[in-house]
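Figure 2 data, in text form.
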Amino acid sequence: MKRLCLIVLGALLMPAAWAHGGHAGNIPDDMPDAQKIRFCERVRDHALQALFDRDRGSPMKLYEEDGSHGPRIVNHIIRRIYDEPQISSPKKAEAFGRATCNEMMGTQRQD
């Protein structure tokens, strides 16, 4: 049980440890929290794919940014996964992707 608590605590603190000056601000509150949470759950799939691509040595696959929040958030997460060797497992990639998305979307998820 202590190990699980430490893992959860580490996953929650990970984005704060990796924060940098180029961090994107919060998104306006024009979307309900339930939609934001579902979106962030889908973003973790992109984080996993980025980890697998990075580990295979594939080039970074970014989405064309059209002014909407989705591609901007996904591209931010993909860049960070490629830049951070500490994200070394699927669980770390999922946790990082979801936590970063929730932070950028301004949501709080209670797991």
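Caption note: The mean pLDDT is 78.
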